[in-house]
Design a protein that fits this description.
The chain is an alpha/beta fold. The chain has helices spanning about 20-35, 70-75, 85-95, 110-120, 140-150, 185-195, 200-205, 205-210, 215, 225-230, and strands at about 5-10, 40-50, 55, 100-105, 130-135, 155-165, 240-245, 245-250, 250-255, 255-260. The protein has a 6-stranded mixed β-sheet, sandwiched between helices. Strand 8 and strand 9 form a beta hairpin. Helix 5 (about 140-150) runs parallel beside helix 10. It starts with 5 loop residues before the first strand and ends in a 6-residue tail after the last strand.
Length: about 260
């Protein structure tokens, strides 16, 4: 079975589901380049827990975890099956790595999962297992989660972290058409440079080392799926490839990263 990369996806606003723009094109192109996975593990910035947790629902419901948007957005469904057996294997792997995990049999797919999956795999015919992140435990913890699950890439499982490479909702509506927040490009350029250099230490310490880190991420949860995807690359060589998908609303950079890394097993 072909080894899959790990991915980091910037999922943007829920409205991306209706107005996909460039990121929709980039995700469709990326999916066409990948071997078809047998299952997907999705670590989303919108499932936050204090301790590791994995979704064990056999048919995860589509969660519309937002308000104030058009009815057409609430009408969308992503009826992909789950994979309870894979969820149990994930929990066992995390337990073995010293990261005890609970299985939530009711968890569905939040918009950090189903919005990008609509453009990666629009037929919703590949099982999806959601994975929680624990932002209070820090980037190194998310990296460890990824490392523990990296061998699944050898078994046809696509490991994805879904967040946003910049995410400061205080800037919603502050930038007119064609204008960008001044912190966005310095921050995303620094991330790309550190990834190309395989400088995981700097990226794990991004709050102290990245330019404009506090402006790009007032809270950590939307960048920590990147640390998960880095860990899931399976080694010290990340093999990072940046896919530029533009900047939404002047402050939400939509970068996607593919990590081919080293062999995970």
């Amino acid at each position: 079975m072909s080894r899959l990369p790990s991915l980091y996806i910037s999922h943007g606003s829920p409205m991306t589901a209706l107005n996909p723009g460039l990121v929709g094109e980039r995700l469709a192109t990326l999916a066409a380049q990948l071997p078809r996975p047998r299952a997907i593990v999705m670590a989303s910035a919108h499932w936050l827990t204090h301790q590791p947790a994995v979704g064990g629902h056999a048919q995860p419901p589509t969660i519309h975890d937002f308000g104030g948007f058009p009815q057409a957005l609430f009408d969308l469904q992503y009826p992909a099956p789950g994979d309870p057996a894979l969820a149990a294997e994930i929990a066992a792997r995390l337990d073995a790595a010293g990261l005890p995990a609970a299985i939530d049999p009711r968890r569905g797919l939040d918009h950090g999962a189903w919005v990008p999956l609509r453009f990666l795999y629009p037929h919703a015919d590949i099982p999806v297992v959601p994975l929680a992140i624990q932002p209070l435990l820090g980037p190194a913890h998310q990296y460890a989660l990824g490392r523990a699950l990296a061998p699944l890439r050898e078994q046809g499982v696509l490991l994805i972290g879904s967040g946003s490479i910049t995410h400061n909702l205080h800037d919603w509506g502050n930038y007119a058409e064609g204008k960008e927040a001044p912190y966005v490009r310095p921050f995303i350029d620094w991330v790309e440079q550190r990834l190309q250099a395989n400088d995981s230490a700097a990226l794990l310490a991004y709050r102290a080392r990245a330019p404009h880190a506090a402006q790009a991420h007032p809270s950590d949860e939307h960048l920590q799926p990147l640390h998960f995807a880095m860990g899931a690359a399976g080694g010290e060589v990340l093999g990072a490839q940046r896919i530029d998908a533009g900047i939404d609303a002047g402050f939400l950079a939509m970068d996607i990263y593919r990590f081919d890394g080293e062999r995970a097993a």
